[in-house]
Predict the structure.
Amino acid sequence: MEACVPEPGWVTWSPSVTLVPTHACFNACSYCSFRRPLQQADALSDQAALERLQARPAAAEVLLLSGEVAPDSAQRPAWFARLRALSALALAQGRLPHTNAGPLSRREMAALARLNPSMGLMLEGLGPAYDGLHRHAPSKRLDVRLEQLQQAGRLGIPFTTGLLLGVGESQADRERALRWLAELQQRFGHLQEVILQPWRPDAEQARPLSAAEQADLLHTIAMARRILPPEVHLQMPPNLWPLEALPAALAAGINDLGGIDTSDVINPAYPQPAVERLGRLLSETGWRLIPRTCVHRGWWAWLPAALRRRVEAWDLLLASGSAQANAPQD
Ligand code: SF4
């Protein structure tokens, strides 16, 4: 790929709105509080999706985050049709869908890539700690995840992955996962960002990272920056990291804060910081907070022409600060 290394001193974020097609999931990851059992399936209507989008007119990115249906289930075609329909709805509203809905067949992934400028799937990690968390989650088998990340590379999809950190894994497990991602990137070049996501316990109230946890994660951020190729953005969700310690995370190698909506549907007890406050804090410490679309600039050439035009139009709007007024239309 044509490498496009992030500008030093810049920290990017994506104005985003999250749609949840369904919380129902056939997996049962032991840490998950998002999931509902299949018998209690919910479904997001078009009307509810439109209302969410209208409430966030400046959100270029529409993150489609869904519970999963088993690949061989009779419900799979309807579930997948809904992902497509909601992607098309987001596009019709001038937005940029980014789907993260678990492992997809090659045909499913290729079909969604025609509607989604970028997509994602967390690797989460390698090693026995993850095997334990995923004992009742067939789609989180390691071989399935590794193959998915390779399939996205073969299909040439700008892709987001990441590690879930602090679940009992060792530093050696983290290093092994980062080295595997670095090799994947050298082979396919499609990894536009790697999220380093601290695991946080579910609670009524947020439990901030302790000083020891922060020090441990800073070490891993620096290791990720050394191991991953320089064009791969390193992302930290800003609601899961103490705001006053954000400059230390940036100094260690973080250069992206990901999609920011008004709340985090996976970690609802951890409120998103106001973007204005983030911008002030960063500029006081020598960083510049820059809005971006769901596709980093280095991957625009990978997009089908219509999606690329839409991404470029949004980029201009975000840079001019006038995204609130007009979502671009074709
Ligand atoms: S696959 Fe996702 S939604 Fe399903 S149980 Fe695991 S974390 Fe929860």
User: Anything to note?
Assistant: The beta strands are 10-19, 61-65, 96-100, 118-120, 159-165, 191-198, 233-235, 256-260, 288-291.
